[in-house]
Design goal:
The chain has helices at residues 31-39, 43-49, 87-103, 123-137, 165-190, 198-212, 221-227, 230-236, 290-305, 350-363, 377-383, 395-408, 441-450, 485-501; strands at 2-7, 17-22, 60-64, 73-78, 108-112, 154-159, 215-219, 244-251, 260-264, 266-270, 310-320, 332-334, 340-342, 369-373, 388-392, 412-414, 432-433, 458-462, 468-469, 479-480. It is α/β, with parallel strands linked by helices. The strands form four sheets. Strands 7, 8, 9, 10, 11, 14, 15, 16 and 18 form a nine-stranded mixed β-sheet that branches. It has a six-stranded mixed β-sheet with strand order 1-6-5-2-4-3, sandwiched between helices. Helix 12 (395-408) links the parallel strand 15 and strand 16. The two termini are 39 Å apart.
Length: 502
């Protein structure tokens, strides 16, 4: 979809649909909504008076103009309560009205800026959020079937301030870049596991590297053996698909050796291995590489936005399957950093492959480290499907990530990492075991990962509950969410700004 800023009067725009808005509880529309209402002989006011338009968040009301305006349809987007309104609500509003208008066969739509006069929301922020929310909300994975509706081809963002057009066009550019990177991550996660293999993940990383001039490396089984990656290789033993360790590097600050490290769990299909999962819902286990997809596409977006910072993504990729050669409960593996691991459950495999990936990142001098992983069902039990779990060994870094989530709307909740829970990970025959008891499972998993980060500032984000959505709402659609991409990009941009200020 093409998105452009134009100067004009929304009521005079020729389009399939124009979009104005209303806050919940407002009885008499103002601004552009009032102007459109007047052109429609008070139709909007009448519907508000009858309670048919309430302005609730997510509400999309449709009025056919019947020739009274150049546009075929007027859409009134509900903004919800004024006191609750923020930039993330703008993203959600854009996603909702775009999906509604696509169902009405609209090809060209025009919208005013939503919430730009509210509080501290600037024109640029509103413009970026509309572009981002529209592209995220319209996402469809239709590779294997014909789409139900044709896509919207063009969206015009109508403003009054001609002098603002260049900066607003730049805001659209950023919103599109981040949204398209998120949608690429969604594509990867939605792709069936018979197509999205570790080798295919490496090919996609190679394509991203080629497109955006990134440094790309891929290590195979023999390389991993030479580096002593016994944990990753242990998980890979049950599959015929060759494992891959993939790295993508963006060098935005050639005068600095400091490099931010993003790591993503890349289990392209997780059967549980010998500790096999129940068959019900196992088809969803193609999403166990959502962390890998997020870090890979985030680096691609960062390369397009060109902040003055260095970022490297590290992606351990393999399948976790049962076979005659598969890892068994009771086996002992040796990770790259020399620590031995007793395998209690082969279904706790994500932490095993991340143990080697984190060890590799430490050896490469990456710092700080952020890992994303669909790691534990326990985190989903604790936080549901709206919040990712956030763990870390450095509160300053944790705060930076949480501040980034405030700007992106990707909700995360800091979880504790009490020393007392380390007892659950103690093994009688190895340095550590790969799972504790059923209580505090997300925490003990994070404590396990902490064994492989040395003294590097590190944050672990458990996205088990947020990587996949069962329903659509705002800019979230059914299926893969692409969670983490926007926060990682925002973190890199803010880190680059803070370094420039020093």
């Amino acid at each position: 979809m093409e998105i452009k800023v134009i100067v004009g009067d929304i009521a005079q725009i020729e389009a399939d649909a124009i979009v104005v808005n209303l806050f919940e509880g407002v009885e008499q529309p103002g601004g552009a909504t009032a102007a459109v209402d007047k052109a429609l002989s008070g139709a909007i006011s009448s519907l508000i008076g009858r309670g048919e338009i309430k302005g609730k968040f997510g509400e999309v009301s449709i009025i056919h103009t019947l020739g009274k305006l150049p546009a075929r349809i007027v859409t009134i987007a509900g903004l919800g309560k004024r006191q609750d309104f923020n930039v993330d609500k703008i993203r959600g509003v854009a996603g909702e009205f775009c999906r509604a208008l696509r169902k009405l066969n609209c090809r060209k739509i025009a919208t005013i800026l939503h919430g730009a006069s509210i509080g501290d929301i600037e024109l640029e922020a509103s413009t970026e959020a509309i572009a981002e929310g529209a592209l995220l909300g319209l996402y469809n994975f239709t590779k294997y079937k014909k789409p139900e509706y044709e896509d919207i081809e063009e969206m015009l963002i109508v403003v009054r301030e001609r002098e603002k057009v260049p900066i607003l066009e730049s805001a659209i550019g950023k919103g599109k870049t981040v949204a398209l990177a998120t949608n690429l991550a969604r594509d990867m996660v939605n792709e069936p596991a018979n197509y999205m293999t570790p080798s295919q993940m490496a090919e996609i990383a190679k394509e991203i590297a080629s497109k955006y001039n990134l440094e790309f490396k891929v290590f195979g089984r023999e390389d991993m053996e030479a580096m002593g990656m016994g944990a990753l290789l242990g998980v890979a033993k049950g599959s015929n698909q060759p494992p891959k360790l993939i790295t993508l590097s963006y060098k935005g600050d050639k005068h600095s050796e400091k490099t931010l490290g993003f790591l993503g769990k890349g289990i392209t299909f997780d059967s549980g291995g010998i500790s096999i999962k129940a068959s019900e819902g196992m088809d969803e286990m193609k999403d166990d590489m959502a962390g890998a997809a997020a870090v890979m596409t985030a680096v691609g977006a960062i390369a397009q936005l060109k902040p003055k910072i260095n970022v490297t993504a590290v992606i351990p990729a393999t399948e976790n399957l049962p076979s005659g050669t598969a890892l068994k409960p009771g086996d002992v593996l040796k990770a790259m950093n020399g620590k031995t691991i007793e395998v209690i459950s082969t279904d706790a495999e994500g932490r095993l492959i991340l143990a080697d990936a984190l060890s590799y990142a430490v050896k490469q001098g990456l710092s700080p480290l952020i890992d994303l992983a669909t790691l534990t069902g326990a985190c989903r039990v604790a936080l549901g499907t709206l919040y990712s779990g956030l763990f870390g060994n450095d509160q300053d870094l944790v705060n930076k990530v949480l501040e980034a989530t405030e700007r992106t709307g990707e909700r995360m909740w800091q979880m504790p990492m009490p020393e007392e829970y380390k007892e659950q990970n103690k093994s009688e025959i190895a340095n550590v075991k790969n799972t504790g008891n059923r209580h505090g499972g997300a925490i003990t998993a994070a404590l396990f990962l902490a064994e492989f980060v040395a003294n590097i500032p590190w944050v672990h984000i458990d996205i088990a509950g947020t990587a996949f959505s069962a329903k659509e709402s705002g800019y979230i659609v059914k299926g893969a969410t692409g969670v983490g991409v926007r926060t990682l990009v925002e973190l890199a941009l803010s880190e680059a700004k803070s370094q420039e200020a020093i």
